[in-house]
Structures are given as C-alpha cells and as structure tokens.
Amino acid sequence: MADAAKIVAALGGPDNIIEIEPCITRLRTEVRDASRIDQAALRAAGAHGVMAAGNIVQVVVGPEADTIASDIDDLLDSA
What we know:
This protein is α+β, with helices and mostly antiparallel strands. The protein has helices spanning 2-10, 39-44, 65-78, and strands spanning 17-23, 26-31, 49-53, 56-60. The longest helix has 14 residues, at 65-78. The model has no long low-confidence stretch (mean pLDDT 94).
C-alpha cells in the first residue's frame, strides 16, 4: 500500500486522477493536469518507466500492476 500512496502522490494526488486501470505490467492513468506529474517521484516509488501523452500516463510497474491498481483504488475510494 505504501507504493500505491507514493504513486498517487507522484500523479498529482487523488484529485488529479480521473481513472486508473492495470494492463499487464502497467498502470494506465488519465489525469486532469499532466503538469502535476512528478516522473522522478514515480521512479523513486518503483516505476520502471513512465510514458505520457497529453493527460494519459502509463506507469510501468511490473507484474504487480493489478495489486498496485487495487491498492490505489482503495486509496482513492477513501479520499
């Protein structure tokens, strides 16, 4: 859950995340404001890579993408 919290913060916080879903080894994310994304913090949180195109961000986290996405959903639901 700690990695999930760090990823949420690096994506600009819960209010910046529109949608997040796992896709094999990635977290596919839509954010409101891409300028709030901290790619260095995403890497520090364990991301192997970050690809952004507009407000769509893919965070490569490896095979634990499903677990991290579930943890992030729990965090967003409680925010």
